[in-house]
Design a protein that fits this description.
The structure holds 2 protein chains of 2 kinds.
Chain A: H1 5-14, H2 21-38, H3 56-64, H4 84-87
Helix pairs in contact in A: 1-2
Chain B: H1 8-16, H2 22-40, E1 43-46, H3 48-64, E2 75-79, H4 106-113, E3 117-122, H5 156-163, E4 169-174, H6 180-186, E5 189-192, E6 212-217, H7 220-230, H8 248-251, E7 260-264, H9 274-289, E8 293-297, H10 305-320, H11 339-350, H12 353-366, H13 371-393, E9 398-402, H14 418-423, H15 429-434, E10 438-445, E11 451-458, H16 463-476
Parallel strand pairs in B: 2-3, 2-4, 7-8, 7-9
Antiparallel strand pairs in B: 1-3, 4-6, 5-6, 5-10, 9-11, 10-11
Classes of the chains: A mainly alpha, B alpha/beta.
């Protein structure tokens, strides 16, 4: 067993998830079976291999001849965005100008 | 007009010649949806006002004799992970049950600008996480070819709608096979464009280094036509590439003589249904007869793709789904007293089991003490997978593989075994990890009459060769 119930509780806490006892038991079993499969990666020696986070910059560098992420740059100009009213339209609670949430700091 | 086989070209011609109005075309599709979709479950929301308004606009152009745009009056459906302004957009999640999109995804906006009529929003696995569409919070989708079976996932509704005659074409998203696998299961064409080819602006993010938007259609040429419309650099998506868009529809019908086609032995080994192997071998023989050079290639790290995928995809998902916290997106658990309570309870009530499983796995892989062992390791093996393809593409123009190890499985068959479910993506995830384009096209039926698929993968931004070969293969089976 790689993952215990305590580990699942710790990770659930990091991810802001609340799990019932049943869910927690199920997740322990599932994560263990998935991680056992993932352990297959340890068959490979990757000590001299660079990690790859995303593919487009490697391709862009080959074609742009430019600096890294040059493809993602634009002029720093102001463009119209969502209006406040539209941006707030899906919020569960607002005061008309801001998103409203339960009290953050207790005195 | 046979609503089951209608193509983009045929639909547009009917409207251009004023044999059918765009409005009547849309209404005929709605009638089909209303009579059949209770069984299939492909649509979550119908956008009738929007569709009929667009149809009337097209009919006005046609009446005046104005030139019609390329998709004039063509009924399409949109996977519910893509934003449609003013319309409910749920990502198949309880969390977004009441979410109304504040803007249009670029791919949707481009389709409508080209004259397409958006009929509605299509069911999918919750946040596009799944291979069977059983993870939809609303209802599973059934495969129109056999309703005891799944349509595949996560874009199950998009594939089923095209197969069932509900829509001439649809949009889906593909993070590890979510367009190609359901296309194979439902017997339609599904296209995965190169990473960066189609804007993801307005796509609800699952795993940002792997997510692609792409079309479903009934023919390769239709898929090519749709790609031409939705492709291209978008200032709203900094990961969209500034690479010229090809004349993809014109590729369909071009001679394939002299093209070198690679067959990777790792994709034809143990676990592949012999009927799928035979069906693909017949297509490969067809390409050989058409003058292609068939070359054996090797992609030696293939067996590591699933473990890499389920680390990378879940790690990215755990970050992307942090935004669903009860503040901005419609759902908040009632009667919470503190902020922490609000986050936890809203997420607990809003997310289904598979989404929680993936968030937990991704968070675990990124957490202190495990980052190097899992996340970094997976990224390193991702490099090895990329090198496999670079080496193979040094000697071939495209690669032919299966899409899935089996035909469509039954509802419930894999629902309790996440590893078995994940392994059904074994032939599709690598294209996402490497960022290359691919297509899934039908290649006959098995002894039970279930559709089988074949996949063609190409070089980065070389959808042209993929479509040219796919079209040749499609003609061969007729």
């Amino acid at each position: 067993m790689k993952v215990t119930e305590k580990d699942v509780a710790y990770v659930a806490d990091l991810a802001n998830l609340e799990l019932t006892q049943d869910e927690s038991t199920r997740m322990v079993a599932d994560l263990n079976s998935i991680l056992t499969h993932i352990d297959k990666l340890n068959e490979l020696d990757t000590s001299n291999v660079e990690p790859l986070a995303e593919v487009i910059s490697a391709f862009a560098e080959a074609t742009d001849k430019g600096e890294r992420f040059a493809y993602a740059q634009r002029d720093d100009e102001v463009h119209p965005g969502l209006s406040r009213q539209v941006a707030l339209s899906n919020a569960p609670d607002t005061d008309g100008t801001c998103f409203r949430v339960p009290k953050v700091i207790e005195r | 007009m046979d609503i089951h086989t209608l193509t983009i070209g045929a639909a547009r011609k009917l409207i251009e010649n004023r044999e059918v109005t765009a409005r009547a075309m849309a209404e005929a599709h709605y009638a089909q949806i209303e009579s059949q979709d209770e069984t299939i479950g492909s649509f979550l929301t119908l956008t009738k006002d929007r569709a009929l308004k667009q149809a009337e606009h097209i009919d006005e152009l046609a009446t005046k004799g104005d030139p019609l745009p390329p998709l004039a009056g063509v009924p399409v459906g949109i996977k519910d992970v893509l934003m449609t302004r003013g319309e409910r957009t749920t990502a198949g999640s309880r969390f977004l049950d009441k979410f109304v999109a504040p803007y249009d995804a670029t791919a949707v906006q481009k389709l409508e600008a080209a004259g397409a009529v958006c009929l509605g929003k299509l069911n999918c696995d919750e946040f596009a996480m799944g291979s069977s569409n059983e993870n939809s919070a609303f209802r599973p989708v059934r495969n129109p070819r056999d309703i005891s079976r799944v349509p595949g996932g996560s874009s199950g509704g998009s594939a089923a709608a095209v197969a069932a005659g509900f829509s001439v074409a649809t949009l889906g998203s593909d993070t590890g096979g979510s367009i190609r696998q359901p296309a194979a299961f439902c017997g339609v064409v599904g296209l995965l464009p190169t990473y960066g080819r189609v804007s993801r602006y307005g796509l609800i993010a699952f795993a940002s280094s792997l997510d692609h938007v792409g079309p479903f259609a009934r023919t390769v040429k239709d898929a090519a036509t749709l790609l031409e419309v939705i492709a291209g650099r978008d200032p709203q998506d900094s990961t969209s590439a500034d690479v010229p868009v090809g004349s993809y529809a014109a590729e369909c019908g071009r001679d394939v003589k002299g093209l070198r086609v690679g067959i990777p032995k790792e994709y034809f080994g143990e676990g592949l249904d012999p009927e799928i192997r035979e069906a693909i071998e017949r297509r490969i023989d067809g390409l050989r007869e058409a003058g292609c050079e068939i070359v054996n290639v090797t992609l030696p790290h293939t067996e590591y793709a699933i473990p890499v995928y389920y680390i990378v995809a879940t790690a990215e998902a755990s970050a992307n789904l942090a935004r669903f916290d009860g503040v901005r997106y419609t759902s908040r658990s009632p009667q919470v007293k503190t902020l922490a309570d609000m986050y936890r309870r809203s997420r607990d009530e809003g997310f289904g089991a598979e989404v929680k499983r993936r968030i937990l796995l991704g968070t675990y892989a990124l957490s202190a003490g495990y980052y190097d062992a899992y996340y970094r390791k997976a990224q390193q093996v991702r490099t090895l997978l990329t090198r496999d393809f670079q080496n193979a593409f040094a000697s071939v123009d495209a690669i032919v593989t299966p899409v899935t190890p089996t035909a469509a499985f039954k509802l419930g068959e894999k629902a309790d075994d996440p590893v078995a479910m994940y392994l059904s993506d074994i032939y599709t995830v690598t294209a996402n990890l490497v960022g290359v384009p691919g297509i899934s096209i039908p290649c006959g039926n098995n002894h039970e009459g279930l559709p089988l698929g074949v996949q063609i993968l190409g070089k980065h931004f070389d959808e042209s060769t993929v479509l040219r070969l796919a079209h040749a293969m499609e003609q061969d089976q007729k």
